Protein 1
Amino acid sequence: METTIEATRGTFEGDAEPISGERGASILGPRNPALEAENPSLLLPPETDAGTIPNLKFGYAQARNRVLSGGWGREITTRELPIAKELAGVNMRLKPGGIREMHWHKEAEWAYMIAGRARVTVVDAEGGNVVEDVGVGDLWLFPAGLPHSIQGLEEGCEFLLVFDSGDFSENETFLITDWFAHTPRDVLAQNFGLPEEAFANLPTDLDNERYIFAGDVPPTRDDDVVAGPVGGSRQRFTHRMHAQEPIEAPGGRVRVTDSRNFPAATTIASALVEVEPGGMRELHWHPNADEWQYYLGGKGRMTVFASSGKARTFDFQAGDVGYVPFAMGHYVQNTGTETLTFLELFKSDHYADISLQQWMALTPPELVAAHLNLDPATVAALRADKQLIVGAP
Ligand code: MN
Ligand code: MN
């Protein structure tokens, strides 16, 4: 007996056929059941999907991993997901003591700790320095150009990095070992006021870029102090996102972090969204920027409305990246049995969205009714409070 995707939608079975009533037919040729099961809305799209829309999904499971002595890192940039021009992301793992080499780059770096703990360091242009420990649910923001490092603590860690340019590459950052390797020894000696012999043991082969290398777990935070000429930085570069009081919604909750509660986040705004089973991030769009998503847990389905009669649906699971180009309407359904958790990121100093329902509720009812042939009772039932996440029907 043939199983249709419509019948199994949300259960991710691997042998479903693209058949819906009289439409469609079974697959006779080669197939990849595992990948098809992860993308049932591509194999058999809802009938409301139409038109050509660029790919809006890429999973870290398909991203090339750079594996080194201290851990690994894999990136999703415009090279993997060409539509994602405003933001790029890196998923990185550091073993206990593993070090993401001292470096800097042209883009601002936003980060969310997924598991474990790390010690981060940063030095600002005034000589203010920060050495701080971050744990699960914490963020950091390193402004463009400021030098920094990340090191796994006793339990190691894994985190998501997001950069405010889709063209960013984690493999093209300014590394301290790289600069030393490309500076003559006599220049180093003069610069630091030290004999050339002090630099006799610099790493030399170029595969040696340390990038992510094994290290010893650092001393406790209180014993890892560097006194500077101006004391600590006047800026705060870390933030406890998960400790924020969430906005409770009918079908879940949302935490928003942007420059209003984390002043360093001048170019990257974020929301941590939890949608309970059966719930849905409501129909909405963003009036200020593209949306870059990272799915942390659960299973979801998003349909993006691109105007001109175009709409396309994508399925997501933990570890996937989704993208919504500027101003396109969208909603995200929880299609699983667990809480769907994802991050929304925007290249902006503030989070903003427009709710379809709130817009309609705040427009004269006869005007709304005239567009959609709605009866007065239906228009009167529209909710003027932004729902954010609606509950199960
Ligand atoms: Mn960095
Ligand atoms: Mn959105």
Protein 2
Amino acid sequence: MEHLSTEHFRMTESNIDSEALERAADIIAGGGLVAFPTETVYGLGGNAFDPMAAKRIYEAKGRPQDNPLIVHIADSDALSEIAEGLSPKIEALTEKFWPGPLTIILPKKDCVPGETTGGLQTVAVRCPRNRIARELIKKSGCPIAAPSANRSGRPSTTKYSHVVEDLDGRVDAIIDGGDAKIGLESTIVDVTGEIPAVLRPGYITVDELREVLGDVWMDSPVENIGGLDFLKEPKDEEQEAHPKAPGMKYRHYAPKGKLYLVQGAEGDVVRYINKLADAARQEGHTVGVCATTDTKDRYRFGIVLDMGQSTNEEQMAAALYDTFRQFDTLGADIIYAEYVGGKRLGDALHNRLQKAAFGMLYAPRPMQSSRRRRIIFVEGHGNARSAMASALFERLYEGSDLEVLSRGIVVQFPEPMNQKTEAVMVSNGLSVEGFVSKQLKDSEIEQDTMLFAMEEAQRKRIIARFPSATEKNTYLLSSYVGDELEIMDPYGGNLQTYGICFEVIRSSVQKLSDKILEEKTYG
Ligand code: TXA
Ligand code: MG
């Protein structure tokens, strides 16, 4: 298409530049295209009543012309001008969720051209919450037809920079209104059938819709999962052109690299991704790992990007498309992503992840052996560093067949946990109940036992003192996991010293658990 010289405007919802908005509205009214912010993703807008504007939108996006557009209105009253079939239930729906991230499909009125609706007799309507969007619609004097403001096949745009990347030179103007708050496209509900149906999950949940509409169908969010695994990945162009799984043909919202979702318990997922990433790296791939704040430090290979706290689904949703685009920029050609979700946005996140993915992988569980292997953390008195290490290791290990002990080299009188150790552990959510320090006994060192000392001098003492402790089963924790420094005794230090010691132990123990479990999982 011809190159346009794109005008750029910048404003915030609380500080709208009315002159710039006036100019943008003139462009829409004159048949041009303006990319603008909404609370879900950026939209690529044109006059919804103008068949030529719809054609231009398809051209700018590089999208097939039969894909219908969402018509955006500034307030609920405008709905009756473009759609039929309104009812008290629909009014209740718009009352409750508009302005907001909900798109409603209704029979269209004649004033909406078939070019806008992709030839359908129905129209998708949404009243966005974003003030810039609504002011733009008002000033344009017409509803605005707008798909997401991305090139076809690419992730939707949630930042101004994404829009520039995809559409600069292809549209008449772009309004920079900051980052999209939600970051996933609106929920679409089709109310033209007997029972309303959610066609695309989003921020407004099915349960919320049911409160207003009663019965609501929910298409499985698992619409088109490829179900391929790593080994069955298509190898040549021929196969690419004739995909076997529908998920490949309709891959959507996707990064350029091949995305694999990995499902399972957190520890299993981390181990499996480490293994897959290492293998892919050795095959010459540029590997991406789509991680969370909680797991990112445990990945050892590839470009690791953090989507946010695994318990903060809104943060992850807002980051999803930007993360995909970062992988593109960094040249990742294969990406492993944790299958993140959550209570409110789980359906929407899973839907977008699955549409973007080539396949879903299940992380294997570690093998349970009949003989319990014993891990013993050892230090001088056995009531500080070894206590932290054993509690941390136990928490990481998720229902295992490992026995984890904390022991002292010399414990004349069993003592409770060191007070500062206890304070640090409690503030990190670890249980200290019933703890007393215990002397290591030679009989506790069996064939499958591994001993981990905190200092090299103590490791030597253990080997010298206990006949069953040898160079083969008694390790310095830090060097076993590839760290350089010993774990120093915090004794005599303040609470902060103990806190720092705890963090050092946490990091070593995390690596230790990954290492041991990897051996148990993959032999
Ligand atoms: O959050 C959003 O909805 C964003 C912002 C810009 O509002 N827009 C958006 O538009 O995601 P788009 O074009 O990327 O997705 C619109 C979806 C498509 O899957 C399309 O097939 C569906 O809505 N759609 C539109 N009109 C429809 C209709 N009459 N019947 C069924 N599906 C329709
Ligand atoms: Mg789209």
